[in-house]
Specification:
There is one protein chain. Helix content is 84%, strand content 0%. It is mainly α.
């Protein structure tokens, strides 16, 4: 019985997406939590106004790099 060949690229892609999701969640949840602990709940809303665009910038940069990788891939 033959085993399927291992697709390392698909595994790497899945890992990259999970890492991106974890980074965004840690940024928003840990950042918002620390702001809430230090300055209170009212400041969390103001802090999220900065944290959300920061998270969006990370996602956009990841998307640009993923597109560049897709176009320069040598299959």
């Amino acid at each position: 019985m033959k085993n399927k060949p291992t697709d390392y690229r698909a595994g790497r892609r899945r890992n990259e997406i999970w890492q991106l999701v974890l980074v965004v969640l840690v940024l928003l949840l840990a950042g918002g939590g620390l702001i809430a602990l230090i300055w209170g709940r009212q400041a969390v809303l103001t802090g999220l106004l900065c944290l959300i665009p920061g998270a969006a910038l990370i996602v956009v940069l990841w998307g640009v790099l993923a597109l560049l990788q897709k176009f320069t891939a040598q299959d």
